Amino acid sequence: MVNTVDFITPPVDDPYWFGQISAANSISDVYSMGGKPVTALNLVMFPSRHLDMGYLKEILRGGHDKVQEAGACLVGGHSVDDEEPKYGLCVNGVVHPDRIITNAGARPGDALILTKPIGSGVLFNAVRSGKFPYPELEREVLPSIAALNGPAMEAALRFELHACTDLTGFGILGHLLEMAQGADARIRVRYRELPFYPGALEMYRKGETTGSNRPNRAMVARCELDMRCALNGAEEELLYDPQTSGGLLLALPASQADELLAELHAGGVKAARLIGEVVSGAVGIEVV
Q: Which spans are transmembrane here (predicted)?
């Protein structure tokens, strides 16, 4: 059995999108371990005296639909009154004990594949501040954020997958650092191969940021970070952008990477990219 729990505040005002995104975010932890979600429990915090209960109904409908899409059963939950809405899931899944995937098994010679774009954190904040139009976010970004990581992991498990993690609040460099530490190796990431959501770079250029960028930068600064490519400030900030329901970061033998990429693209995971590799050396990250 694998068990996980997660909940978030609303990244967008639309309650149905909020429910879908939060559920996909919660379920992703089971997928990242190679597991299959089986049951889920709702975790609800809601200001019932300040918001219409119809808002809550739509949050729960979004979560229910995403749990069903994952092939799991929503079997109950718990709610409390709170000052602001929060929603998530406790997810229970199964995985063969010999096939549990962690973020610590990458090996020198592995290729690294990322399955979703980066930049959701700054875009959510930019919508709130009026710098980015919500209709564009809904059209170009939210479907990817709310997408389950199940199809990507199902494809990856057909290969010699050594390590996996799902991108969340630490940003791409934070999660690469965890993978490098787990492998006791060095990770080389090719900046120009990283997929970014449309508009994310522009928002950093306009001065938008998130509350997580600075602590994420401080966390990565404690390791050996070798910036070998010339990036401006906005381009660099994208490396620390916190993700909600981010993609999977997959490590597998380089000889299998192209075939996995082809399967991911054929299976609808169109944003998947080969972004770097694991190399021998002192624990750290090279951005080239």
A: none
